[in-house]
TrEMBL record:
PROSITE patterns: ASP_PROT_RETROV, PDZ. It comes from the Bacteria. Residues 1-19 form the signal peptide. It comes from Flavobacterium luminosum. This is Aspartyl protease family protein.
Length: 442
């Protein structure tokens, strides 16, 4: 299974001009707290678009608010719509999209009454199948640009502050400050890292929409070379197709003066990057596998980011050691037993009355998630165990697959080297059982 959707967008606009009034506080409150869900390291927040309640990925790596053409979004009314072309990572061609002005976007007490949207028409492009929870779009720069925003991965809350004066100065002393630059509406930092024994300063996009730890672009520096210990892998999906490259590790990364060891790193290949354009001097991206280890405070207006390590900091940097990519591919009708207890009165000849009960079984049919194998890395433990692309996952370690959330399966497949994973799969109606052992090849 991949690290999900390390997205970098290049948007080709046909005569469209983006203008935003920006988000404002609806009330006089000093801060707004917004609870979020997580899946595969990513932050999903509730967003209302023109009166319709949706779920959006909070992504510092995009400059535009993007809406996917899913069933629930069909009821949204749009004004001032024109057709455009969108490109992104991947080797495919540009895709059709719509550009819409004057939309009302509300996140709790935070709202923008004049918000521009990109609407992706291809229903195959979405996050829901990869995350296992509904995701209707992506929101980025417009959410962050006017007010300080804190992302607390421990408490699973995003907090928007009216200004930095409302963030406790006493608490701020425990944070490490990094200078931030905003270029083409995206945040960049320069951080030291050690690769192949060489220490270098690297200009990196802060990309909370990437579930990976680091991406590096080969040949953007003489010191950026893929380590000898690496493997070919599927890295994710972009707007223009699938992204492939190599995975490896870097010896050390310094982020907010904290040292992170043995960090996983991805190197997308040239074909995957051919549609992308980068700001001058950029070497790669810092993704959510690193960001989630910190309490992060973004202050775009003052060109700063503040970091404080949290309870995830000491977790190892694991990757998917199975070689499987699993996705949610819809719902299945499942027959389930329901145990019923019937109480009744029983009377003896001595007129003693007491309660008794009798058990009975009924059945009901309910809709449950269905998971499919959508990619198998060649030579991986899952590949050697005979699992193939297109197989339907029916059981994992003896438990029916629909009892799992997709994120739980992802965590299991990158849990620890030497762990045995038993699977039952449905291959065109034939039930097959197999098992494999997770192996760290880095």
């Amino acid at each position: 299974m991949k690290k999900l959707y390390s997205l970098l967008f290049l948007i080709i606009l046909s005569g469209a001009s983006f203008s935003q009034d920006g988000f404002q506080f609806k009330s006089k409150r000093s801060k707004i707290s917004i609870p979020f869900e997580t899946s595969n390291n990513l932050v999903i927040i509730p967003v209302e678009i023109n009166g319709v309640n949706l779920s959006f990925l909070l992504d510092t790596g995009v400059d535009s608010t993007i809406l996917f053409s899913l069933d629930k979004t069909d009821s949204i009314q749009f004004n001032n719509v024109e057709k455009i072309k969108v490109k992104g990572l991947g080797g495919g061609e540009p895709i059709d999209a719509l550009y819409s002005k004057f939309n009302k976007v509300v996140v709790g007490d935070y709202q923008d009454k004049n918000h521009d949207l990109l609407i992706i028409l291809d229903q195959q492009i979405n996050f829901s199948s990869q995350l296992g929870i509904p995701v209707h779009g992506i929101i980025g720069y417009q959410f962050f640009k006017d007010f300080p925003v804190e992302v607390n991965y421990d408490s699973r809350n995003v907090v928007v502050y009216r200004d930095m004066n409302y963030f406790s100065k006493r608490k701020l002393k425990n944070f490490k400050e990094l200078p931030l630059t905003i270029e083409l509406d995206k945040p960049y930092v320069t951080i030291p890292l050690v690769l192949n024994g060489n220490k270098m300063n690297s200009k990196m996009l802060i990309d909370s929409g990437s579930s990976d730890a680091l991406w590096l672009f080969e040949d953007t520096s003489e010191l950026i070379k893929i380590p000898k210990k690496n493997f070919e892998d599927f890295l994710g999906n972009g707007f223009s197709g699938e992204i492939f490259g190599k995975r490896s590790r870097t010896e050390e990364v310094f982020f907010g003066d904290e040292s992170l060891q043995n960090v996983t790193i991805s190197f997308p290949n040239d074909e995957s990057l051919r549609n992308a354009s980068f700001v001058a001097g950029r070497n790669g991206s810092v993704g959510s596998e690193i960001l989630k280890r910190f309490r992060v405070l973004y202050d775009y207006k003052n060109s700063k980011i503040y970091l404080k390590k949290n309870n995830y900091f000491d977790k190892p940097f694991n990757f998917n050691m199975s070689g499987l990519q699993v996705e949610h591919v819809g719902m299945q009708l499942v027959k389930e037993e329901i145990e019923l207890k019937t109480s009744f009165l029983q009377t003896t000849e001595e007129k003693n009355v007491f309660n008794a009960s009798r058990k009975s079984i009924r059945y009901q049919f309910t809709l449950k998630p269905q998971y499919q194998i959508t990619n198998v890395r060649s030579g991986s433990p899952a590949d050697l165990a005979g699992i193939k692309k297109g197989d339907i996952l029916t059981k994992v370690n003896g438990l029916v697959s629909y009892k799992y959330k997709l994120n739980s399966i992802i965590e299991l497949l990158q849990s620890e080297e030497g762990k045995t994973i038993k699977m039952e799969i449905d291959r065109k109606g034939m039930i097959l059982k197999t098992e494999f052992v997770l192996k760290d090849i880095l």
